[in-house]
TrEMBL record:
Domain Helicase C-terminal: 601-771
Residues annotated as domain Helicase ATP-binding: 404-587
EC assignment: 3.6.4.13
Functional description taken from the UniProt entry: RNA helicase.
Keyword ATP-binding: yes
UniProt region (Disordered), positions on chain: 1-30, 85-160
Organism listed in the record: Aegilops tauschii subsp. strangulata (Goatgrass)
KW Oxidoreductase (keyword) present: no
Sequence motif Q motif, location on chain: 373-401
Protein name in UniProt: ATP-dependent RNA helicase
Transmembrane feature ranges: none
Amino acid sequence: MGGGPRTFPGGLSKWQHKRMHEKLARGKERGLLRHEKQLYLARLRSEIRASHLPGAPASPADHAGPTSSRAHIRALADRFLRPGAEDLWNDDDGPLRRARLPPHQQQPARSLPSGARMVDWKQVESGEKLKPPRGGGDWKDWEELDSGEPTAGRGAGNEQRLPAAFNQRRGYGTAAPWWWQWSPGSGTPSQRKEASFGFFGPKRCYSMMPPCSPCRESGAVLMPLVARQLAEAGDGRNATPLALFYTQERLYSVAAPRRFGQKWRPDSSDEDEEVMPAARDLRLAKFVASREDESEDDEPGETSAIRRKWSTAALRNCDMKRDRRPLKSYEEESDDDITGRIQELREEIRNREVLGAERRRYESRGESVFTNKRFDECGISPLTVKALTDAGYIQTTVVQEAALPVCLEGKDVLVKAKTGTGKSVAFLLPAIESVLNAMKSHTNHRVSPIFALVLCPTRELAVQVTAEANVLVKYHHGVGVQSLIGGTRFKLDQRRLESDPCQILVATPGRLLDHIENRSSFSVRLMGLKLLVLDEADHLLDLGFRKDIEKIADSLPRQRQTLLFSATVPKEVRRVSQMVLNKDHVFVDTVGLGAVETPTKVQQQYLVVPHELHFHMVHRLLREHIDQEVDYKVIVFCTTAMVTEFMYIMLRDLKLNVREIHSRKPQLYRTRISEEFRDSNRLILVTSDVSTRGVNYPDVTLVIQAGVPPGREHYIHRLGRTGREGKSGKGILLIAPWEEYFLKEIHDLPIQKAPVPQIDQEMKQKVDDSIKIVDMSIKEAAYHAWLGYYNSIADISRDKVMLADLASRFGVSIGMEKPPTLFRKTAFKMGLKGVPGIRIRK
Ligand SMILES: Nc1ncnc2c1ncn2[C@@H]1O[C@H](COP(=O)(O)OP(=O)(O)OP(=O)(O)O)[C@@H](O)[C@H]1O
């Protein structure tokens, strides 16, 4: 594929060279991890020593602050001990062994953190050697424990027993770690004390968060509608996780966090599922964590020996590892209470009817994205309101009305709202408010901390959000907004960050990580962070970005507010959103129950055309649209960057006013074209997935998607480039007969089959001629990219012979008599070696 030299320094082949670099990168990462583990242990030791010094602080609160050693230990512990962190461990850490718990601790009378046991403080204070636990138990396996002085309850005659850990081999005693009482949330001291065996790791610490009731959380702002109906439906206990709120003309739901002791089910993105937890469990059982897991969450100190593993690795008794959570399959779900389930399903149907009636009433009002609420009624700074007014923003949109109150309260929020409804302003306003609040208390810094961080999946989106934020902070002197995106010079970024004010940073994950990993002064600035926003959150939490986001989240203070925004929130994303959101987060859904996720004023059609005619058909559709719309503005989405390039050259040759943006173009070019397209009419933009999400080009009249998108979410976001701010628009999906399988994924959207327009012979000939002039190297690259794209789609790649045949036909359609060759290794990696129709490079 692609260009580039075939041999590399040292006579290495491309693949050897690549492997060598991968190996080096792995080695570097291992080194970093080793270093961090050592640091963790060292920190732990010094903390223990410090706690034994005279005049040691009496309570953990004395060490508060994001850069304190305790915060550091906590962060490190989080990183290494979190469920799923097994990936961070390597062979050097020693074999994993399942803990053999001493029998007397298998059911502790009082909840203890794992690895801890009751210690008699008198025994510890007298310096007496600790005896192995009564009832047996193996010290070797059970490297335990000892002591530190409890911050509360120590003193003469006090018999209180505290959880402790002792490292026999090293001969020092630790324990009752200072954060045994530490709580990131609020709660009464007694609650904390009871529930806070926060022994390394957020899970336990979070589990002591105080209960919060939906009514108390949000009821003051909005009027609960369904909560009452559900309560009437009979099961008050199950009815709490969701309240549907109805204000004046708007209908949206706010899923309040679970009540205490009631586990939030991350897999439930559907509103209906929130309404009927039991029914939801029935349908989505495969995502629900095991029962042991639940009990562990709800009973913070209980040892769940079944899944916990210990190792003899460097962290000794601290390096607790966990198995991956076994996922329950649908079949495993117990069916012993069929009658109860039927009853619950009946209730669900009844509730749906009620909600359906509300929805019809709401929709009958006609869909406007704007509400009657003005920004000056939202409790934001008057200077921000002034800037909003200058920009022409007077009334809030639906998502702004719904999300602002909750975000301004300081809660973690997950927001779902349709494309083009003003989500950027909805998260930028809370960001600005939190910066203003933070600046009041941070006046003496030479370089101000970064108080708000907005993460965007693409560079274009980051640039756009930065521009929007700059408009909003216009009157806040001293508040600076900067962007950090790939494709620019690292050193320049660094200089700009140091010289210009930057309290709000808008970044793409890759470049941000570069700065975090390479500039310690930058990481220090992030330690003051108050608010983190993930725009297009579902995409950022997707597999491609997840590791980066995890690393970024690890380097941010835990005491922060996190906001997630997207037009699509698949179930899987709700599950992994826990990675960054706290447990008591609020889910604001302005799309509504059972409503379509696409803008209602966008007409959606699909055309089924043989693949050979796709380029001709795109040309035909564009010509037709240009004839109909004087001020046309069209986006054509292609499957890959190289196919985009091919399409662009062909359309340009056909004398259409066309521009291209894709990942193969330099960043400056991308930014320039993006700005040009934003400000112009009578222009066609041919683009790949880099423009799928978030980018706001006003007044786009038509979106054509040529070829099947990678998934439902992509379809919705691409379509969302038209019909913004409640305007009308049109979307056409162009697929080949063998791509019709995709229609199943969007069957609930209002998309209709359109009759296939005729392509006359003269027009066909013109297109064929334009195809001929495209350079052969671009055609070859387009063929390779096409093959790679469809090979990554499971529905198509299953039948490799068919895929190779389709690829050959695609090759013919772009003017290649014979398909180009593939490198042997590439073919092997793609599973195409030996497949008829695939030619291998000799
Ligand atoms: N309150 C408002 N009044 C008028 N215009 C607004 C208001 N809020 C946002 N807009 C405008 O609406 C348009 C769409 O906003 P934005 O790009 O934030 O949408 P979005 O919901 O983030 O879309 P996407 O899901 O595609 O990212 C922008 O042009 C923005 O300037």
